[in-house]
Automatic annotation (TrEMBL), chain A:
Pfam families: COX1 (PF00115). Cytochrome c oxidase is the component of the respiratory chain that catalyzes the reduction of oxygen to water. Subunits 1-3 form the functional core of the enzyme complex. CO I is the catalytic subunit of the enzyme. Electrons originating in cytochrome c are transferred via the copper A center of subunit 2 and heme A of subunit 1 to the bimetallic center formed by heme A3 and copper B. It comes from Psychrosphaera haliotis. It is an enzyme of class 7 (translocase). GO terms for biological process: electron transport coupled proton transport; oxidative phosphorylation; respiratory electron transport chain. Gene3D superfamilies: Cytochrome c oxidase-like, subunit I domain. Its main location: membrane. This is Cytochrome c oxidase subunit 1. The keyword Heme applies. The gene is ctaD. Residues 27-531 form the Cytochrome oxidase subunit I profile domain. The keyword RNA-binding does not apply. Keywords: Cell membrane, Copper, Electron transport, Heme, Iron, Membrane, Metal-binding, Oxidoreductase, Respiratory chain, Translocase, Transmembrane, Transmembrane helix, Transport. Pathway: Energy metabolism; oxidative phosphorylation.
From TrEMBL, chain B:
Belongs to the cytochrome c oxidase subunit 3 family. It is found in: Cell membrane; Membrane. It comes from Psychrosphaera haliotis. One of its GO terms (biological process) is aerobic electron transport chain. Residues 4-293 form the Heme-copper oxidase subunit III family profile domain. It is a multi-pass membrane protein. Its main location: membrane. It holds the Pfam family COX3. Its EC number is 7.1.1.9. GO terms for molecular function: cytochrome-c oxidase activity. This is cytochrome-c oxidase. Keywords: Membrane, Translocase, Transmembrane, Transmembrane helix. The chain crosses the membrane at residues 16-35, 47-69, 90-110, 158-176, 188-205, 225-253, 274-292.
Length: 531, 293
């Protein structure tokens, strides 16, 4: 990792805008990457709880067999909007928020490359989700076709809210593309002199590659929703065999977006873990360059594996084999990463602060999610697992104990840098342990009911699954409630607490740890020199 | 990177993004309602909301670009800033390429898989026999499995003229660009004007072609997968040509009325020019895969 001669934060007196403006308009008109990062993070936290509340509805209904709390159509709306909100409203904005805060500080840039567009990419997001949430209250209800909006569910059998769904997804896409362009241009163009590509912190590297994936696939999603719109409202037949199209075509287009999308939600997580593990192991990251190459390999492979979501659609055998083998190939670079994290910890002077605890939990639990993914990659086995709770268990291990845990780890890691205060360690540890136990009570039994054949996205189930589902729901409620502790920790940390040093963590290295805590409103107005 | 560091300009607060966000909200919410209204033959306020959104976005663009132009003319931008703009525009064009990619993907899938399979190819013999035994798998698909009939658009005539027009327009725009780089302002104005003229002729001919398709050939957006891909691909392309022509017209007025742009500093012109060439390349792909093959 690079070191610097002067942190160059003492230059901001001689410029016209030094401090942060006051009042609500500061947040609405801001062009400051730290403000916009905070907005993204707060918005993502809000969405996390709204999407989480929907998950609670789902788990309450599934607590017992039979239909007791909600109508099946409302249940479908909950699964759909829970998925959309968690993917586009919680995980992705959280990573963009972290990128906004940390990338310019990590590469010695004065701000993001295009600060006004940065504001625009954030402020269109709340409006997009406003439209999506409002559609729940429309006549006929909100979208109920699953977050994957497969045709013909979204075309022939969907309600009037579909048009609102389509346009809100368009806005989410515009936001992601503009955000990604900003990140990629910042990294290419605003690195401080001496910050060569192979000196960049891994969080910056993973975000560079993520941004490329976003620009490549979000437009494809826009194409998919546009075809759904014309199929539903303007009598086209892209996804209807009667007009020469094919419902399976929808799945091809959707998953060509959807598979890179899942890496969009995990590559920045890899970056965060690669920042945290070396700090608390007091050792440089093991195999830095192999981490970079592994990330790039995962990104390239992500474009060649989309149809492993579609093994049961009746693809030609050659297609099934191709997608099976390429999917399995992804475990190689991913294995390199897990190996490197473990090797970084090997013989390190380990301490177990909260960010490190979340990171270690990430490494173990994400690996479980990876291994169940490998099981799903085997075509003949997937015929059995497809559309069962096994799939639900798999992607929640990857997304909750993977992406969300890494976001929590990153938030605890950088919170002292953002606020200038140390957080309440005891409360944070309680949050960690409650989350760790409850998340496994929540998702681990799903493997069993899934393998036994319980289908996903159905509000009722056969009675033999009753005991496991009750346990799962209890885990779900416990996990949901535990997250309130996170809000308490963050709130207390913003309000006060022990003063944080510039370096914050003993073993932390990199430019962001050489500026004061809290980080001044403008950092690196003239670039630092990197040796 | 040079050792002489010019400060990177970070603008102070700006009202335009939030105006743009409200504009986009009105467009999305208005369009969502409008699509429902139109297809059900109802009337409502949604159309007005959509219109208000579009006007808000135009207002936002004018204000935002005015700020950027003023800042640039006052010499607040460094060479590094210029690179940010150029890279940003390049990535934007890449995202557009991927957007068209989705529709080209649909076209190739229909031609290589869905239509032949409906005709019984690969292992789909029984699908063909059971569902639509009379269906014949040909491309262009002039008769869909459920019996919607249409005619195929040939490549000679209007489409060929349009191809030639767009190809020439790329060349004329390049001449204009060369004129700007060598500070030959009249060469710039003449060739830029010619490009705009060619763009407008293209659009008029495209409308002509659509009218011909709808009135005389019965080729419509709803004419099965052939009509779907034909109209969405050429339609989105036409939309991009329209946008590109508007951008060129704005460049023309900036050059003629305000004497903007210098041989060294002309990002706005360059971005417009890149966009135009991109639209041209998309048309060449369209001409080959939609019209000829």
């Amino acid at each position: 990792m690079s070191s610097i001669e002067n942190s160059a934060t003492d230059h901001h007196d001689d410029h016209e805008h030094h401090g942060a403006p006051k009042g609500i308009m500061r947040w609405i008109l801001t062009t400051n990457h730290k403000d916009i990062g905070s907005l993204y993070l707060l918005f993502s936290l809000l969405m996390f709880f709204i999407g989480g509340a929907m998950a609670m509805v789902i788990r309450a209904e599934l607590f017992q067999p039979g239909l007791q709390i909600v109508e099946p159509n409302f249940f479908n709306q909950m699964t759909t909007v829970h998925g959309l909100i968690m993917v586009f409203g919680a995980v992705m904005p959280a990573f963009v928020g972290l990128a906004n805060w940390m990338v310019p500080m990590m590469i010695g840039a004065p701000d993001m490359a295009l600060p006004r567009m940065n504001n625009w990419s954030f402020w269109i997001l709340p409006f997009a989700f406003l439209i999506l949430l409002m559609s729940l209250f429309m006549e006929g209800g909100g979208p109920a076709f699953g977050w994957t909006f497969y045709a013909p569910l979204s075309t022939t059998y969907s309600g009037d809210s579909t048009a609102f769904f389509v346009f809100s997804v368009h806005i989410m896409g515009i936001s992601s593309i503009m955000g990604a362009i900003n990140v990629i241009v910042t990294i290419f163009n605003l690195r401080a002199p001496g910050m060569t590509f192979m000196k960049m912190p891994l969080f910056v590297w993973t975000w560079l590659i993520t941004a490329f994936l976003l620009i490549a696939v979000m437009p494809v999603l826009a194409g998919a929703v546009t075809m759904v719109l014309t199929d539903k409202y303007f009598a086209t037949s892209f996804f209807s065999a009667a007009g020469g199209g094919d419902p399976v075509l929808f799945q091809h287009i959707f998953w060509f977006f959807g598979h890179p999308e899942v890496y969009i939600m995990i590559l920045p997580a890899f970056g965060i873990i690669s920042q945290i593990v070396p700090t608390f192991s007091r050792k440089p990251l093991f195999g830095y360059s192999s981490m970079v190459y592994a990330t790039a390999s995962i990104a390239i492979l992500s474009f060649m594996v989309w149809a492993h979501h579609m093994f049961t659609t009746g693809m030609p055998l050659a297609g099934e084999l191709f997608f099976m083998y390429f999917t399995m190939l992804i475990s190689v670079p991913t294995g390199v990463k897990v190996f490197n994290w473990v090797a970084t910890m090997w013989r390190g002077a380990l301490t177990f602060e909260v960010p490190m605890m979340f990171s270690i939990a990430f490494i173990v639990l994400f690996t479980i999610g990876g291994l169940s993914g490998l099981m799903l990659a085997i075509t003949p086995a997937d015929f059995q697992y497809h559309d069962t709770y096994f799939v639900v268990a798999h992607f929640h291990y990857v997304l909750v104990t993977g992406a969300i845990f890494s976001i929590m780890a990153g938030a605890y890691y950088w919170l002292p840098k953002w606020t200038g205060h140390m957080f309440d360690e005891g409360l944070a540890k309680l949050h960690f342990w409650l989350s760790l136990v409850s998340v496994n009570v929540l998702f681990f039994p799903m493997h069993f009911v899934g393998l036994a054949g319980m289908p996903r996205r159905i509000p009722d189930y056969a009675t033999q699954f009753a005991d496991f589902n009750a346990i799962i729901s209890i885990g779900g409620f416990a996990f949901g409630l535990s997250q309130l502790l996170f809000v308490a920790v963050v709130y207390k940390c913003i309000k006060g607490g022990e003063k944080a040093t510039d370096q914050v963590w003993e073993g932390a290295e990199g430019l962001e740890w050489e500026v004061p805590s809290p980080a001044p409103y403008h950092t690196f107005e003239t670039p630092p020199t990197i040796k | 990177m040079s050792s002489e560091y010019q400060k990177y300009y970070v603008p102070a607060q700006s009202p335009w993004p939030i105006v743009g966000a409200i504009g986009l909200f009105c467009i999305a919410f208005g369009a969502g309602g409008y699509v429902n209204d139109v297809t059900k033959g109802e009337s409502g306020f949604s159309g007005y909301l959509l219109l208000a959104g579009i006007l808000t976005i135009i207002f936002m663009l004018v204000g935002w670009f005015r700020n950027v132009i003023d800042e640039s003319m006052n010499g607040m931008y460094s060479a590094q800033m210029d690179r940010s703009f150029k890279q940003g525009m390049s990535w934007f064009i890449f995202s557009e390429v991927m957007f068209f990619g989705a529709f080209f993907g649909a076209l190739f899938y229909a031609r290589m898989f869905s239509v032949p399979w409906l005709g019984g190819a690969s292992n789909n013999l029984s699908t063909h026999e059971v569902l639509w035994p009379a269906f014949e798998a040909i491309w262009p698909l002039v008769k869909t499995p459920d019996g919607t009939a249409t005619e195929a658009m040939g490549w000679t005539g209007l489409p060929l003229y349009n191809t030639i027009i767009l190809l020439i327009s790329s060349v004329t725009l390049h001449f204009a660009h060369v004129g700007l780089e060598h500070n030959k302002r009249s060469q710039l104005k003449v060739w830029l004007g010619a490009t705009i003229l060619l763009g407008c002729i293209f659009l008029v001919l495209q409308v002509e072609e659509y009218i011909h398709a709808y009135r005389e050939m019965g080729l419509m957006l709803s004419s099965g997968i052939y009509g779907n891909t034909f109209f969405l691909l050429t339609g989105f392309h036409g939309l991009h040509v329209t946008l590109g022509t508007i951008m060129l017209i704005i460049m023309f007025f900036r050059i003629v009325l305000k004497e903007h742009f210098t041989p060294e500093n002309h990002f706005g012109f360059q971005a417009t020019s890149w966009y135009w060439h991109f639209v041209d390349v998309v048309w060449v792909c369209l001409f080959i895969f939609v019209y000829i093959l």
